[in-house]
Design a protein that fits this description.
The structure holds 2 protein chains of 2 kinds. Chain A is mainly α. Helix content of chain A is 48%, strand content 10%. Classes of the chains: A mainly alpha, B alpha/beta.
Chain lengths: 126, 265
């Protein structure tokens, strides 16, 4: 699917980006703003798309952070919730993994109040 | 109703319903299976496993099979539920000991330190859930795990909506809000996993929904609010009528919001 996206991106970058944004916002509808795509950087976006294919996360640096909070939208279409659960099993003991229902990959944009509320809780905990 | 007599009523209600609970409490059964799946995420340290509120044993059998080297202490507030669980549990001859004890989960008596404390659909009946859970955390061994499933305050949105529309009190029991609970438990724990899920049950009509709650022993009203007979009739009639307009008559949907928590001490 990723290679298909990259091929399509060469010909129709804006259309691919729109589809990706829609998937990121799912289940919340994404609305295109009037200036969407005006400052498009196709090279950087294509580079990021390629990176998605070789995505990996080293949890070792997380052990040095005093408090780790991971928020994951249950309906995430970019990184599945199963992946999030898998990650949670490898997290160090200083971590909290919180799933948020009715939220997707773009939850910092679509569920900002919920995110802040969990962040406040995490920062408040001694 | 004071705390003691309320607990007695809860125990009696569930005890009398043990058989139908075992046959009909599908939500509790599904959540027990999910808890067992969650327990695969983290390693349970050696030590005794305490199950609070075993009910008829939906979770107990899984614990018994999954952790053959951990002694298992099975408890319930209701002697009848405990007896049902004990008589139906299949225990492998070579597994670590399994003991049964009638006990109120809010009043742990022994000084045992546990490797795992687990409770499926129990803490919503507690008078002081946060205080009780903090007490449970103290009873865990270092790196011991607390594993919970409970219905949250976001359950029964349809019932709540009908009450709001009719301007009558919403008399469902007060269910726990996970966020303050997590905030309190975070302060004394190392690691936390929280998952929430909405389950949908279907019923012929509102009367059927309330009868099912009663048949599994879960209809004890601890909310201190009661509806008059007239209000109950109004509620059921309005709810049934609102279902008829959906084009799916005789399918009343009720949503249950359930929190799943894993906490490492």
């Amino acid at each position: 699917m990723l290679s298909q996206m990259m091929t399509q991106f060469e010909a129709h970058p804006q259309s691919v980006l729109e589809t990706f944004r829609t998937k990121c916002y799912h289940p919340v509808p994404w609305e295109r703003s009037s200036d969407f795509g005006k400052a498009l950087n196709p090279e950087l976006l294509l580079h990021d798309l390629k990176d998605l294919g070789v995505c990996s996360l080293d949890v070792a640096p997380l052990k040095k952070i005093p408090k780790v909070l991971i928020l994951h939208g249950v309906q995430d279409r970019i990184v599945s919730v199963e992946k999030g659960r898998e990650l949670s099993a490898h997290l160090p003991d200083n971590s909290q993994y919180i799933e948020i229902e009715q939220a997707g990959h773009g939850l910092p944009f679509t569920h900002i109040d919920t995110c802040w509320s969990w962040i406040g809780q995490r920062l408040g905990a001694e | 109703m004071n705390g003691k007599s309320e607990k007695l009523k809860i125990a009696q209600s569930f005890g009398q319903a043990a058989l139908s609970y075992h046959a009909q409490a599908s939500l509790q059964q599904d959540c027990a299976a999910k808890l067992l799946a969650l327990l695969e995420l983290w390693e349970v340290p050696p030590g005794v496993i305490l199950e609070v509120g075993c009910g008829t044993g939906f979770l107990t059998q899984g614990l018994c099979d999954r952790f053959p080297h951990h002694p298992l202490q099975v408890t319930d507030l209701s002697a009848d539920m405990l007896h049902f669980c004990q008589t139906h549990l299949q225990i492998a001859p070579d597994r670590a000991p399994v003991s049964f004890q009638q006990m109120d989960g809010e009043m742990l008596e022994q000084n045992e330190r546990y490797g795992l404390i687990v409770a499926n659909f129990v803490i919503q009946w507690f008078k002081q859930p946060i205080e009780s859970l903090l007490g449970w955390l103290e009873r865990l061994k270092p790196s011991g795990i607390l594993c919970l499933a409970f219905p949250t305050c976001d359950s029964f949105p349809e019932w709540r909506h009908v009450c709001e529309s009719l301007q009558i009190p919403f008399t469902a029991n007060l269910l726990p809000n996970p966020q303050p609970l997590i905030e309190a438990l975070s302060k004394v724990s190392q690691k936390l996993y929280f998952q929430e899920e909405t389950f949908c049950t279907t019923h012929r009509d509102a009367g059927d929904f309330f009868r099912e709650l009663k048949s599994i022993g879960a209809a004890i009203n601890t909310s201190k609010r009661k509806l008059s007979i007239v209000e109950i009739k109004k509620l059921m009639q309005y709810w049934d009528n609102s279902v008829k307009t959906t084009g799916k008559p005789n399918v009343l949907q009720v949503h249950h919001h359930v929190a799943f928590l894993l906490i490492k001490r």
